[in-house]
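Table S4 entry, ArsA-related P-loop ATPase.
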Amino acid sequence: MNPAWPARLHVVTGKGGAGKTTVAAALALALAAGGQRVLLVEVEGRQGIAPLFGVDPLPYEERPVAVVPGGGEVRALAVDAEEALLEYLAMFYKLGAAGRALGKIGAIDFATTIAPGLRDVLLTGKVKEATTRAVGGRHVYQAVVLDAPPTGRIGRFLNVTAETARLAKVGPIKTQSDGVSALLRSPMTAVHVVTLLEEMPVQETADALAELTRLGIPTGRIVVNAAHPPLLTGGRPTATAIRKGLAAAGLASDPATVSALRAEADAHRARATAEAGLRAELAGLGQPMIELPLLPDGVDRASLDLLAAMLAEPPAAGPG
């Protein structure tokens, strides 16, 4: 295990639009450093991982998507509920061809629709299998990173024991869900929450951490994504200072331009003040926290490597 990220299963959640898939991909690269093999898993059917690495859409099959210096490797997998159920039927009920026949007539889709808890058990069950899989006494993957559902659904998604209790009291489904629940509540797991320095994502972060704590599921880092760099220092710039700066740069320094720049400076300072308050709220949640910069030119492999290098740094301790 990476000492900066002391878990084997890293669940990455966050409010939609906060960049959790990008963070999950960068974290997988960070964990693969030093010759480690890491599996990056998505479960929402969005195919968000493949474009980040410039590869074809992921099948229900573990595929290499990146190598890192030192011989490390990231593989990726898109878990599909129907394929997971077919695998489950073949494994526990020996229904290979018969299970696929059920898929063709829509029975599997019907089953996961009327029992949505079953879908989450299947998805998390596949993640658990990959996390614990071993060959010759050694884990196949030194770490697994799960690009999980957003914060609004993360508690229900991970609380598979409660969901399965509505479906089965005994049998393979109950046994599998109990195994998943034990993994998710063990020190092998950490749930990291990705947020932006905006009011709603910060509130959802606080709510998600409180829910996960209530459920007994270990939490990890708060990742503040797309943080804006500070552009101004000191007090409010005067009109004279702005005119001098424009003139020194060979730009127009007419009153309209100076006034517009002062208004932009005021807006930036107001935003910086608001972000400072939100940052303090996050710090008060008591979790280790890291900030990742805004990527104005979008995400490519070079920027993923940059984020990975930052994520590899030891976390700052939360207060308390």
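DSSP finds 13 helices and ten strands in the chain.
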